[in-house]
Amino acid sequence: MAADHADDKPVRVTNKVFTLANMFSVSRIVVSVPLIWIYQYYGGITWIFTALIFYGIISDYLDGWAARKHDEISELGKVIDPIADKIMAGILFIFAVYLGKIPLWFLVVSLSRDALILAGSIYLRVSRGKVAMSVMSGKVFVNALAMYWIAAMYFPENVSVVQFFLTGTTVLMVYSFGDYLYRFVRILRGASYN
């Protein structure tokens, strides 16, 4: 009996390195690096800080769009896209915790989730020769994470809105981790994956 597929459907994955999608992912890492310096140097939230945050969010959509539009979903892209997300989110959330705008427990739980997913990805790469693509609930979680960060940094005085996003993002974090774990177990049991 043929093994089932852990993703919705199989997709063609290439070994291309220099793709438009990968360039968008790399650019997200590049714009993440100066954000803290810009915030500190210019005394808080400015138009350039906001523009870089906006670009970071938009580039996450653009890399997925480019990969699908040009049929360039790549092994490198499956790795670099979530790494770009984690670098940007890590920098911004560590800084937000430092400023006292986001609770430390949220950062610890989020980083622990990411570390466990990374460990599973490394295991699949070593044992099966390829990394699994991100699951849709993981992408939804990343978007919720961005909304929570924006609420906490830009509207800290609106406590009910910040609390709403904290609660919703925490629920999505747990749900998406369960989704990753479920797929990981299916792959271990022989399901194919993208």
Descriptive report:
This protein has 194 residues and is an all-alpha fold. The protein has a single domain (20-188), classed as Four Helix Bundle (Hemerythrin (Met), subunit A) (Up-down Bundle), CATH 1.20.120. The protein contains 7 helices and no strands. The chain is globular, with a radius of gyration of 18 Å. The model has no long low-confidence stretch (mean pLDDT 88).
Primary descriptors:
194 residues, mainly alpha, Four Helix Bundle (Hemerythrin (Met), subunit A), 0% strand, globular
Task: Give me a quick take on this structure.
With 194 residues, the chain is mostly helical.
Structural class: mainly alpha
Ends: how far apart? 20 Å
The CATH architecture assignment turns out to be Up-down Bundle
Global geometry? globular
Q: Can you say what the CATH homologous superfamily is?
A: CDP-alcohol phosphotransferase transmembrane (TM) domain
Q: Which parts are unreliable, with pLDDT below 50 for 5 consecutive residues or more?
A: none
Q: Outline the biggest β-sheet.
A: none
Number of helices: 7
CATH topology heading: Four Helix Bundle (Hemerythrin (Met), subunit A)
Task: Quickly count the domains.
Answer: 1
Fraction of residues in helix: over 70%
H/E element sequence:
HHHHHHH
Overall mean pLDDT stands at 88
Radius of gyration: 18 Å
Fold blueprint:
Elements: H1 20-32, H2 35-41, H3 47-69, H4 75-98, H5 104-128, H6 136-154, H7 159-188
